[in-house]
Design brief:
monooxygenase activity; iron; iron ion binding; Cytochrome p450
């Protein structure tokens, strides 16, 4: 039985050992006191994420770190099942094509160069680079003014921080919704060349605002944590950093597998009794898929960072119908970001003791709160 999350880590890059020293499917107590299950192996995780008998509807899925279910708001397709999910997903897939993401690469390179040009040692790499790079990119893609980035970054963090009072979390969500609702109305009145404007003919204002919240949050939070934590990991593994430029794409995939920053919110609730890993998941019980544990399960020497390994099948972007919509954009941002950062500053090093780097352990998206570096 796991009584509560988060569980203390002994290494900033490894999932807690307790998650690995147990059966593939074991008991977990959720934040509201009910009992559910935790899955820690790759095979069983893929089953949960691809089986339509497991639902991701917000009103029935429990969280290990928040004490309440959350009804799915209009447009919040991440917390819906087909066919509702399918309708939104098809509309957005047309906005996030591989071709369109590749066309963004020159602009991503330009933003990266501007951020690196502005950096002087010592600096907090999170504030100077890891956060503003994906934040600026998603703002331009969606049509959100980057001048308001401090407002939406702060409110995005507060919305999902379990350590913050629930009233403050709700107020942050309301503030972000109000801001984006007004923005969406502006797009409808005067469409531009951005994703939100491209959807105004297919969705109403409430739906489009719900989508905007999810895309704005997911589009900067996960990649920012990967850039920050990934830099920390590479600085602590100089042998692997030395191989980065030989195959940047492969290195990005290995960092995704090795770090697996999405740690707590990959949950599904059984719509009927389901046999899984020798256990029976009863109808109405919620299952947490531990992506960090699953990504350390099927690979040889899984606890080693090896940027030359084959990482085919890793679950860092999920699996099944809810697999990350923006994964190609995230890959481009990381490939460009890591390559440019260590080309420009090959002598970069931590400016503090590694044990003094603060970690966002309690959040659903794991990473470094700051990363003091110098060169």
């Amino acid at each position: 039985m796991t009584e509560a999350l988060p569980i203390a880590r002994t290494c900033p890059f490894d999932p807690p050992a307790e998650l690995r020293d147990r059966k593939a499917v074991s008991r977990l107590r959720f934040a509201d006191g009910t009992l559910g299950w935790m899955v820690t192996t790759h095979t069983e995780s893929r089953k949960v994420l691809s089986d339509p008998r497991f639902s991701h509807r917000g009103e029935i899925v429990r969280s290990p770190i928040r004490p309440a279910t959350q009804p799915s708001a209009p447009g919040s397709f991440l917390f819906m099942d087909p066919p509702e999910h399918t309708r939104y997903r098809k509309l957005l897939t047309g906005q996030f094509t591989v071709r369109r993401m590749r066309m963004l690469e020159p602009r991503i390179e330009q933003i990266t160069k501007e951020l690196l040009d502005a950096m002087t040692p010592p600096t907090d790499l999170v504030r100077a680079f890891a956060l503003p790079l994906p934040s600026r990119v998603i703002c331009e893609l969606l049509g959100v003014p980057y001048t308001d980035h401090e407002f939406f970054e702060q409110n995005s963090h507060q919305m999902v921080d379990p350590a913050i009072n629930a009233d403050i979390r709700d107020a942050a969500g309301d503030a972000l919704f109000g801001y984006l609702y007004e923005l969406v109305q502006g797009k409808r009145a005067a469409p531009a060349d951005d994703v939100l404007s491209g959807l105004v003919d297919d969705l109403d204002d409430m739906e489009l605002t719900g989508i905007a919240i999810m895309l704005l949050f997911a589009g900067h939070e996960t990649t920012a944590n990967m850039l920050g934590l990934g830099t920390f990991a590479l600085l602590q593994h100089p042998d692997q950093l030395a191989k980065l430029h030989d195959d940047v794409d492969g290195a990005v995939e290995e960092l995704l597998r090795y770090l697996s920053v999405v740690q707590y919110e990959v949950n599904r609730t059984a719509l009927e009794d389901v046999e899984l890993g020798g256990e029976v998941i009863r109808k109405g019980e919620t299952v947490l898929v531990s992506i960090p544990a699953a990504n350390r399960d099927k690979f040889e020497r899984p606890d080693e960072l090896d940027v030359t390994r084959s990482t085919a099948g890793h679950l860092a972007f999920g699996h099944g119908v809810h697999q990350c919509l923006g994964q190609q954009l995230a890959r481009i941002e990381m490939r460009v970001g890591f390559s440019a950062l260590f080309t420009r500053f090959p002598g970069m090093r931590l400016a503090v003791n590694p044990t003094d780097v603060p970690l966002n352990v309690e959040r659903g998206i794991y990473g470094v709160a700051s990363l003091p570096v110098t060169w």
